[in-house]
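user: Please review this fold.
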Amino acid sequence: MDVGTISLVLMLGLVALLAIGMPLGLASAILAVLVLVMKFEPALLLQPWTFGDGLLTAKPGTGPLNILAQKIYGLLTDYVLISIPLFIFMAALLERSGIAKDMYNSLNVWLNRTRGGIAIVTSLMAVIMAAMSGIIGGEVVLLGLIALPQMLRLGYNQNLAIGTICASGSLGTMIPPSIVLIIYGLITETSIKALFTAAFLPGFMLASMIIIYIIVRTQLNPSLAPLPIEKLTSDLSTPNLSASKRARLEADLAALNAQPAGTEKLALFAAFLSILTAGFTLMMFLRAAFFTLAGQNVSREGVDDIALGTAAHLPWLGGIFLVAMALILFVFGREKTARGWLMGKGLVPPIVVIGVVLGSIYGGITGITEAAGMGALAVFILMTLYQKTFSGWVGTVQGALIPIIAFVALLIVLPHFVVAGDREWLVKLQVAGTFFLVILLTLRIPAVRDGLWDSLLRTLRSTGTIIWVTIGAAALAGAYTIAGGPQFVADLIVGSDMPTMLILLTMMVILLFMGAFMDWVGIVLLIIPVFLPIVQRLPIEEIGYFGELQPKYLSVWFGVLFCMNMQVSFLSPPFGPAAFYLKSVAPPHISLTDIFKGFLPFICIQLLALTVLLLWPPIVEILLDWGQP
């Protein structure tokens, strides 16, 4: 059977199976078998009793089926794939840790006197959360639980509140570490680190567009986002107000008026930044000093120097640390610095998690999978620390002081009874024993135990869904590739004499349409193997209107462009997943129709960002080429 007929049957079959509600993974697997049969043994369709006489069934384990099995096996055994459940697990732990709530409170303190401040805080919080885990569903739900009630209570416009939460919550698609970019990199064999680097500027550009839209719209129409002080004053002027409610509102207004404002708040924020700078540069200085003393940062040909870890960095790090300490001690003073720390300390745990995940990747310390594991462990430790105050942990350590001393003594004494040949085994035993002992001790805290169990179950469900969709979609994409489908589509489009930008625009429309009805996992596995070869055959000089893209970054640019397109799919009716995530935690009076209506301005913003990426492709090269000779 010819490839054109197979392509038509495949398209109609996919639409029909999804329309009747069949899961994408199962529908893809069924169509994969159908494509192989139509291409290599069509007699089975009309004469099934001929099973075993054709190319497909004559020798099981060979031929097209063997090629397909190898493709699926290779995808599922890729080491980077392990990072996906780890990032999902990290996001689930974040929801239970209390980190997000403290971060929201700290951001709110700094922006509570700004028009539209709560919406801006929500967007900033979404950016930080995206840089921690990159899981979209969890972000939308968490923002819906924390920010939506606050915005509605302060009298924010419902559409503005809904659109801000869902549009900002979907930024995890673009801002690294993004699972969409990881899957794209696996399928197309593109450097995931390069994809992460290239996606930074477009991702923050989109986030900036959302924040600018909020600022401009609320300034033009202040009634959309009343200031907290305006809302409290208005509520106090309500007639027939009960004495208890009036007392509560007056107390809230007095507390708000007592908070710093203007230059005083700016000075406190500068003091907080000085503390962060001093802490960071001190850690980097000690790290560089250790590498220098250990001789691990000696420049070698073909090996990159350790980032911020060479002897040349020591004077710079030490100087910045001394300047920050001078600002703390002699400019801001201890009292103001302590107050600034109390106002901003909720931002420290997210910064630590981002530093662990992205810092370990770009610092050349670990790969993406190891960074995901380190991030999950960091969030688990923070979640544990959040369960008690500092004095509470001091009391806990004091209560278990004898077992701790005994365990440390055992670690010190045990090596003296082990022969030299068993040292490696001993080190592994010590590390594993320490790790499991700490885990067992933390699991004695009920909140940690319940949070860990719930996070593991959610990770299992989410990962299972992604894996089954991956298997089915990979099978279908592989079968269609073996049948010659991508080459047929490429010849059809390239041979149509359409301008290059019109071809790309057609692809974007197809992706937008598919995104409104299909999960992104299926799209990246089914559509990208067909579209990317077409893009690679287009004249590189005709891609974009401003600047020229370097050929080596073509697949990277298309991956970022695809992710920007998927941003729109999370808000696109009728099956925009962000709407259903928010609906699960929204008040009963907010319907799905209300949620989709709130999306409209933000979909336009996303389309504008997509247009910028189409017209100016070299935006993805800026950070990729930065620092290169």
